[in-house]
Specification:
single chain; alpha/beta; two-stranded antiparallel ribbon; 10 helices
């Protein structure tokens, strides 16, 4: 299933009011029910990943992968897969590489998961943008829904507004020695992921890697299996490229220190 299917779950409708004296309005009940549904993704990911975090080698620096299905989604470390985090692990055996990715995740979801698990990492790698910038959220963004704001539209909104994503990135950075972020490679791109990329480039707490520019040297027919998901070769080249960039970033930072 694609990210859009994960995020496009049917939204529960508000129950009818039982009279003027009803304590909770239909609109507020709609918000409460919807927020609980969207938090279920975080609940499942927290339950799934918590045991694996306890098994990590504390003697090794921790690299955390944050993303959605384009990063492999939620899967056990012992599964025989070769998504880009697996290639990263092969290239950097002296580090613990732990993916916290799950299908349909936005920066809103990922920030909450990091808080729930209380993760502190040497390096965090964010590969995102597609889910944040999908205009399929019923009536308001996740952040607006959580703040219990009145819906601004009767149509559809972005799942994560740029201003909110900026805040979530800041919060993520407080748990990461390095927060290195990349927008997802999407073809064709209607410009929405590029809007997310501009945020990554200007955010003061983010080191932006131009993964899209690199993958585009191969082209979508070589590295993509659909609009947003990499094929096996795409995962290999991306994981290996990220590993080399990490080595350079860490080395350059040591020189500055």
């Amino acid at each position: 299933l694609s990210c859009s299917l994960f995020l496009g779950e049917e939204t529960p409708q508000p129950p009818p009011q039982e009279g003027v004296g009803a304590e909770i309005s239909a609109g507020l009940m709609w918000q409460t029910m919807s927020l609980e549904r969207y938090l279920e993704k975080v609940d499942r990911a927290e339950t799934f990943y918590k045991p694996y975090l306890k098994q990590l080698d504390d003697a090794k620096p921790l690299i955390v992968v944050l993303g959605g299905s384009s990063s492999g989604g939620m899967r056990r470390p012992d599964e025989l897969t070769e998504f880009w985090p697996d290639w990263l692990r092969k290239q950097l055996p002296e580090y613990e590489v732990q993916s916290l990715a799950f299908g349909g995740a936005t920066t809103w979801h990922l920030n909450k998961l990091m808080e729930r698990l209380d993760v502190r990492a040497h390096t965090c790698l964010l590969y995102a943008g597609h889910n944040d910038r999908m205009r399929s959220a019923p009536r308001q963004s996740l952040g607006s829904l959580e703040r219990k704001e009145e819906p601004q539209t009767q149509a559809f909104a972005y799942w994560v507004d740029v201003e909110d994503a900026d805040f979530y990135l800041t919060q993520l950075s407080e748990r990461c020695g390095y927060l290195i972020a990349m927008e997802e490679y999407r073809f064709p791109d209607d410009g929405e992921v590029k809007a997310f990329a501009r945020l990554l480039m200007r955010h003061r707490d983010v080191l932006h890697l131009e993964a899209v520019k690199y993958l585009d040297t191969y082209g979508p027919k070589i590295v993509l299996q659909d609009q947003i998901h990499l094929n096996p070769y795409g995962h290999e080249v991306l994981g290996s490229w990220i590993a080399e960039n990490l080595k350079t970033i860490w080395k350059d930072n040591e020189k500055r220190e």
